Amino acid sequence: MSADALAVLDWPDAFAAGPARVGGKGWNLARLARYGLPVADGGVLPVAAHAAWLADAAWHAELDALEAAGPDAATLDAVRARILETPAPPAVRAAVDAFLAAAGLAEVPLAVRSSAVAEDSARASFAGVHASRLNVRGAAAVLDAIAAVYASLWTPQALAYRRRFGLTHRATALAVVLMPLLPAQAAGVAFSCDPHRGRFDTVVINAARGLGEALVGGRVEPDTYVLTRAWADAAPALATCRRGEPARRCVPAPGGGTELVADPAADGPVLPEAAALELARLAWDVADALGFDRPAQDIEWVWDGQAFRLVQARPVTALPADAPAALAGQAVAWSNGNFRDAIPMVQTPLNWSLTEPMIQRVMHTPFALAGYPLPHGRPFARLHAGRAYLAVTRLQWDYHDALGFPPERLNALTGGHQPTITLPAHTPWRTRGQRLWRNLRLGQALQRLRRGAEGHLAAVIARAAHYRDIDWAALDDATLLARLAALRAEAAGDTRVQLLLGSGGATLFVLAGLLERRLPGRGDALAAALLAGQGTITSAEHGYRLEALAARATDDAAARAFFAAEPFVPAAWRELPADSTFRRDFAAFLDAYGHRSVYEVDLRTPRWREDPGYLLDLIRARLGHTDGTPPAARQQALAARAWAELGTRVPRWLHPLLRRLVAQAAREAAQRELAKSALVAWLEPLRAVARTLAQRLAARGVLADADDVHFCTWRELERALGGDRGAAGLAALAADRRAQHAAWEAQTAPDLWLDDAPRNAVAPEAHDAACLRGLGAAAGSARGPARRVPHPDAGVRLAAGEVLVAPSTDPAWTPLFLRAAALVMETGGFLSHGAIVAREFGVPAVVNVPGALARLQDGQMLEVDGDAGEVRRLQAADTA
């Protein structure tokens, strides 16, 4: 084996080598050093040295046989003794000598720690299984410590741990981390989450005086600090501090190793509150750096009284499942159904660090107002392979337990293909009374907040425009950060917007339920028909006004010439003459809706005000075309048929109540869509701030490229600009995240994760093979050829009278609905944006049809029955 293969690797070389050569602990430390986090200089003796130390092939074969046989304690004692007696190969000795000399560590006390290939991974931590040696001085002692690390692979606990995970000694070959023994006023462990309750709003710190070996070995009782934050974008606060054992301190022993000594002067907490807060922030920084998609890390640290240093970080591998006790034994489901409307894409750190706390606030607000507060740190949304999924098992239970809401109806409102939870057989009367009280309380809160909601939401959009108009590039760093803090606080603190977004289906649920009791099997379809044309839906207004703009352009000679030009240059619309009526009306459209965009919750997407090309392409495709049935006529016909049916089957005395419910359900849907518009309005100035931060940090060399801003969290950017720790290593962190992002984008996202296993939806049974079943979200029936549109940019191919087949739809898709005969979506529910707008337009819609894009072909004649929730193929697919 070559000398290069055995050389001790510094942190940059260890990162490049990867965990297969330097083990989990060594690679994680190398990553932290690469990202500018506080890690002392050090190195890793690679796995190859372990193989060289035990180079005799017969020795390896003997170990294989011994492991398979299940040796007793005496046999394992003999194996460890033999390893300790085996001299270091000359090449390994030379490698260690060279590293110690080059690093200036030859006479410095060191920490020698194991770093197994499978250690400190997401699957297995090996916490406390393999040996570490502290206060090791000199090359000979270091080699003895390395032998002790190798021997620890053959303790009874190490063998049992490997068997638990189905691993062999070859799969857990050991690298060894060599670091200076850091001066320690205190040391310990910090968890970036609560490892016992699975909450992510909490940091748990165990701290002991002196070195951490006594704490890890259970020889002292540490101080325990619990720090919490309300949301992921909030600052931490100290919640509790439980004092441990003040009288002893772990210190280096004169002859090597450590010892516990009396410390009678130690009468205060191990860490001052300010230091505990700093460590909590550091724990979250580490968690974001090593895996922003699953930020649960177990961190070992040392504090010298001034600064913290990291000596280990590994994933928390055994977080409790997010399931209530009442659902014990049922699968825990996470679904992308509700998120495919708005955020189907792989999330960037910039976007997710903004979106995740936003989702948490929206989901928590109704429960808080109902008097059923939920713990903030239990996530309603998390990432799997970079894409967002909703905690649908937990959500079904919370809505049922708090308000008595039926789980199957919640699934129909939100969409997705998740299983419906099985409820306990008995509900105590006390619980029923509590649910009634909470419903009354929430209803009163909703009534208060809905009064004048339209004016409030218009004011929110105006406030966002105020921030949009700031010249962020002209501000100095301190002023920019202060204004950004104000912007983020204002955007995050509006409970009214959050509630309007999270409660848009209450009256629709009541209306459909009342109709279902009177006309079994018809409740949802009739409710959808009654809502046709009843609301002023802001995302429907996009479509109406774009159709009007197409008509205006047809009558405007300058606009016709602009649209007819080849090549077509959308940005040239601003060069139209001042008296162009199209230019005037299009500018007015952008004034009203320019903060919106395609997949508008993604900060990487330009707003329509920045790039209106998508809109102009849609208008260009509509020039000179008219639809057969005007939307108003279609809406009136649907509603009239529904009222006619009710007139013969529902008592007249119920009609006034039904009309009030229809009006209220329409208003709630309109307010929900307007609340989405208001929420998105904040993203326009935030995008402008992100551009300014990108340009400034790229110019200073903190980022390699301005686009790297999307691969940093907001906290990382703010701290980098403010001169706080975080600027060093940010470019490397962004580069590694960009590579991970590309790998995730290459993966196909499953519909569900059940107990952390990916699952795709199975199509429900239909009465014949030509029929696809889903959820009827908008009433009526229509026929037409299929047109598959995987992304709204492909919407220009949709011809009038075709059936739009889409994966999901956000508000940017809705202008396409006016030319579609019907709508078919792979996911979605009654409260999906596409369903709300389809009901408003009177376009039949069937949503939540698994695999529709793959199972249908362009041009294939379909009949879409929004009443029955069925898509019938009127001709076979072309298999030629």
TrEMBL record:
Residues 800-869 form the PEP-utilising enzyme mobile domain. Pfam families: PEP-utilizers, PPDK_N. Gene3D superfamilies: ATP-grasp fold, A domain, ATP-grasp fold, B domain, Phosphohistidine domain. It comes from the Bacteria. Keywords: Kinase, Pyruvate, Transferase. Residues 21-323 form the Pyruvate phosphate dikinase AMP/ATP-binding domain. One of its GO terms (molecular function) is kinase activity. This is Pyruvate,water dikinase.
